[in-house]
Amino acid sequence: xxxxxxxxxxxxxxxxxxxxxxxxxxxxxxxxxxxxxxxxxxxxxxxxxxxxxxxxxxxxxxxxxxxxxxxxxxxxxxxxxxxxxxxxxxxxxxxxxxxxxxxxxxxxxxxxxxxxxxx
Length: 119
Description:
119 residues
């Protein structure tokens, strides 16, 4: 077993409960960690024997482009798609950060983290 991590996937998206957030947008950062069996691909050196991180990045970018009020909602969509489209993944840990959130203070980011296991 092993993990594949995609760190700091940056997007410009339109999430948030405020009307202005839907119009102006904001910078986001996504960190993804998935658990999968890497033993076969470590022997064969063949992409078909592992999880394609290009696909993982594509899922994140596509789902971040769909507006949501809450970061939790967009995170759950990303996790659900990964679990559906990549059966070799047994665990997903996902963090979605809104950078410089409009919360009336000097806050670098607000981050939610979610985790899901395949049963």
